[in-house]
Design a protein that fits this description.
ADP-ribosylation fold; alpha+beta; 115 residues; 4 helices; two-stranded antiparallel ribbon
């Protein structure tokens, strides 16, 4: 199953530190890890939310074992294509164990003032 994750520079640095194979643990105020099922939605979040918040936004793409991923609900959080896979934070390590291959950066957005 192909998933996308919009992210900012701090989270991306932690993914890089993992050898591009794992997502970092969620912060206490982040009970859900939510990769998205649509590249266009990921682009919108990275460009419109991450860039203003941190000066840069990235879209990552990765594969996860579809049989394993089926245990998590897909939530529609907007229009028909605004879909997220909701993984409880306490299950993220097990989810990471089912990533196939590496987490790849497929788009990068920076603010006009970012260096």
């Amino acid at each position: 199953m192909t998933l996308w994750r919009p992210t900012g520079p701090i989270e991306l640095g932690l993914v890089r530190d993992s050898g591009w194979r794992r997502w970092p643990p969620r912060l206490p105020d982040q009970p859900i890890f939510y990769p998205v099922l649509n590249e266009d939605y990921a682009i919108k979040i990275a460009r419109d939310w991450n860039v203003p918040a941190s000066g840069a936004g990235y879209v990552t793409r990765f594969e996860v074992d579809a049989v394993f991923a089926a245990r998590y609900p897909v939530r529609q959080v907007g229009g028909d294509t605004i879909l997220e896979l909701w993984v409880p934070a306490e299950e993220l390590e097990e989810f990471n164990d089912h990533i196939v291959g590496t987490i790849d950066v497929v788009h990068e957005f920076k603010s006009a003032t970012a260096g």
